[in-house]
Design brief:
The structure is a homotetramer. Chain A contains five helices and seven strands, in the order E-H-H-E-E-E-E-E-E-H-H-H. Chain A is α+β, with helices and mostly antiparallel strands.
């Protein structure tokens, strides 16, 4: 029997301010990208590696692609929730998926994705920093204490690409 | 011999301010969506129908989907150019494509698309306002003064979907 | 012996995102005004009268003046705290004072003020809505259960102007 | 007879986008500070010294104080004009005054001031860079070709503090 894939997910919340809205009476569409950023920032903090630490080590994750689909409008003073999931990881790239909903009634508002390159200070594409791989491995292992390493590579897409990024050969 | 498809395109420029940048020293990724909005706003003005007029008539074009691919970074004080093209038009929707480049060396920075619904004041999806269809028709006819109406429907995707939106049957 | 003046104060916190920063590596100066807005919004919620309720009743509090003094820079990923105090209230105006500090070391970052008019939907200046006066009175009385009404007008500037706004004559 | 004081002024224009507005249907108050920044950036370009050059030389002019008074609301799609004037200059500081008006009817919308420190890359307050003083001197001299240097110090506040910054002793 196949295990469900491992997922690395963070949920954080945000209160909409007046400055987020536009004259249609709803949140301006560009501001959802600020929420995506907040979400992935919290996900990195959750695995013990806040993005400032990554930058101090000389790495950046600039966005190379973003997409967002808007289904309902967020409005002033509402609390929205931002679910962020790490969905892909390559040697020099990573991708997140986001879902935004209104806290009060859990109504889905938007969903989207971002793809990021990994670059050094000069902007050159470079391999993922080892500190990130270590933090991810620790986060994942904490969540499956009894599984053998042999099972790890059966746990779905995330781990597969994660393993590739780590340059690991199955069985681990 | 087939005519090249008709295109409805606007190019406008913008000077990057400090407030558009982030601590990576480049323009923050969400701000490109502000430029997309500036671009489509100028395209509507170009066809003689500024968006405030559309809103005064009780219509809105909320964004239902956006995508952007970033290739190079825009930087503080650079002049960027925003090319906007109307690429799709349905009974109650329209889509724009955008290309952003740096004016100085015409280096491509980003490209993207937005899809919009057409809604009334209450947010209900509704048919495109006739004033927009008329303005588009006028803009297109101005640009092909000698062609017969019979040729119009051979002029590529834009016109085809435009004609459908107008509920026209070829020959016009 | 004189009582200390009554103060109506809210403290709320905010995590700085990348999008708040500029290429100097610190929060862009205009974004502090977003924090001021967040602060006064929370103060109104604290007294049981969120700003959306005020707007639903047909009132707005547009900013007519703002000032901010910056002493230290807020930086990416820091948690800042926003202290908001209602400091003046007239028949058709109110003012808030703000102090921003970094949560980690309580270092003062900025302080400022905003002055607001009270207007109706058409933008005309109008008297403060009664629901706000009632909410303020309730908030203040809750905090001084044993004092007689006779003492109220000795409690400093806020109450004095509050009383004037209410058109009250001491003793209440 | 006293000469009118020398003034260093720039006027630039900006088209309001949807993203600048809020749900009150007018431009969000923090965005006027973005316009102030645009104005002073254009003033520096006008004297031949764009701010990126100043930063490349290792200097920054962080805002230490801002004030803005709002009289009328800017609205979506309006063209506004930003008048920026350099009003004070000290050894390690400078101040600008701004006036914003609507282009269509020249209706005054807002006015404000910013005060800036001059710092080096590490954030330490430092003397104004010589390149700025030279650029200012050139800009001023161009505009009064026939006046003797002896008259310069009678030309009002700006020049007086400018002269002090230059460490000049009258007569020049």
């Amino acid at each position: 029997m196949k295990s469900p894939p491992l997922r690395l997910v963070n949920v954080t919340s945000y209160r909409v301010i007046y400055g987020d809205t536009d004259q249609m009476g709803v949140v301006y569409y560009a501001n959802y990208l600020r929420w995506f950023e907040r979400g992935r920032s919290e996900l990195l903090r959750q695995i013990g590696l806040p993005y400032p630490i990554i930058e101090q080590q000389g790495f950046h994750f600039p966005v190379v692609q973003v997409a967002c689909r808007y289904t309902q409008s967020a409005r002033y003073d509402e609390v929205i929730q931002i679910e962020t999931e790490l969905v892909e990881m390559g040697r020099a790239s990573l991708s997140f998926r986001y879902r935004i909903w209104r806290e009060a009634d859990r109504c889905a508002l938007a969903e989207g994705t971002t793809e990021h390159a990994c670059t050094d200070h000069s902007g050159r594409v470079t391999r993922m920093p080892k500190i990130l791989l270590d933090a991810l491995a620790a986060a994942l292992i904490l969540r499956m204490p009894r599984c053998s390493t042999q099972n790890l590579d059966r746990r779905g897409n995330f781990f597969a690409s994660f393993a590739i990024a780590l340059n690991l050969k199955p069985p681990l």
